[in-house]
Amino acid sequence: MCKHFLDLFDHSAEELLMLLDKSRELKAVYQSGRTDRCLESKSMVMLFEKPSMRTRISFEVGMTDLGGSAINVRPDDIGGLIGEREPISDMTRVLNGYCDVIVARTFGHNVITEIAKHATIPVINALTDECHPCQAMADMLTIIEHCGGLSGKKVTYIGDGNNMSRSLAVVCAKLGLHFTIAAPSSYDMPASFYEKVRAISHTEITSTEDVKEAVKDADIIYTDTWTSMGQEEEKAQRIKDFSGFCINADLLAAAQSTAKIMHCLPAYRDLEITNDVINATNSVIFEQAHNRLHFQRALLKYLITGN
C-alpha cells in the first residue's frame, strides 16, 4: 500500500478490504471499553481550506483515542488558502519535521497531490472537489454492518455527480458492488470518469434520470446535498433542476422495504431528503457518520505504524 491515502483509484481491492477489516477490529476494541494507544507521542496536522464538523471531530477524536495529538490549521493561520502565502513545497517540507501525518481538506485536488509530492510523512485526503475517499470507506463499513456484506449489493445514489458520488462509484467498482446514479443529465458524472471507473469494474456502473427505476432493486439509497461548498450562487437553480429527486415516502414506495437510507451529512431536510426519511427505521445515516471515526482511526494507525 502506498504511504498516502489520496484517491481510491490508487488502491487495490485487497488493500481497501484490509483497511475495512482493521476498522472493524479497532471499532470492536473501543466499543468493548479497551484502548489502543499505538500513537503515543505522534502528532497530526489538519490543513482545512473548507470547514467541517464531522471530518475535523472524527479525525481529532481518532488521533486522541490512539494516544496522539491533533493540530487544526485554518486558512487564517497560514495567510490564506494553501499555497497563497508560500509555496506548497516549502510548507510541506516544514511540516515533515513537525508532525507524523498530514490530513488536508482542500478545494482543488491538485493541492493535496502537490502536498503529497513533497511529503515524507503520510498524507490523507479529508475531501477535495474531486473525491471524498474517507467518507466512501466509512460508507462501505456501514454497508457491511447493515447489509451483511458488500459483494453484489446495489447502491443507488440520487443527486449531483460530485466528489461523493465519484468516490462511491470507485469504491463500488473496486469492491464488487453495483452503482447507479440518478441525476438530471447536466449533473451527471463526466464520460471520461465513467470510462476510467468501468475499466476497473466487474459490476454495473450506470446512470439514469428515472429515479423510481433506479431505486426499485437498490439495497442502499444514498443522497448528498445538491449544492456543495463553493456553489452557493447556483443554489436556487440547482433546487429547481433537482425537483423530483428528493428521497421521500413516495419514492421509497417504489423501493424494497429493506433498502437502507444513507446520507453523508450535513442534510438539508426537505430538499434532497425529507425529515421523516432521515428518522425512518431503515435509515443508517447516523451510524454512517459514526463510522467516519472508526475508519479514520484505523487508517491513521495503519499509515503511521504499518499495522
Overview of the molecule:
With 307 residues, this protein is α/β, with parallel strands linked by helices. The protein folds into 2 domains: 8-131 and 292-305, Aspartate/ornithine carbamoyltransferase (Rossmann fold); 135-288, 3-Layer(aba) Sandwich (Rossmann fold), CATH 3.40.50.1370. The protein contains 12 helices and 9 strands. A 5-stranded parallel β-sheet has the order 7-6-5-8-9. The chain has a 4-stranded parallel β-sheet with strand order 2-1-3-4, with helices on both faces. Helix 5 packs across helix 12 (285-305). The radius of gyration is 19 Å and the shape is globular. The model has no long low-confidence stretch (mean pLDDT 96).
What attributes characterize this protein structure?
single chain, 307 residues, Rossmann fold, five-stranded parallel β-sheet, 13% strand, globular
Straight-line distance between termini: 12 Å
Largest sheet: 5 strands, parallel
> Low-confidence runs (pLDDT<50, min 5 residues)?
none
Which percent range fits the helix content? 40-55%
CATH hierarchy, class of the largest domain: Alpha Beta
CATH architecture of the largest domain: 3-Layer(aba) Sandwich
Strand order of the largest sheet: 7-6-5-8-9
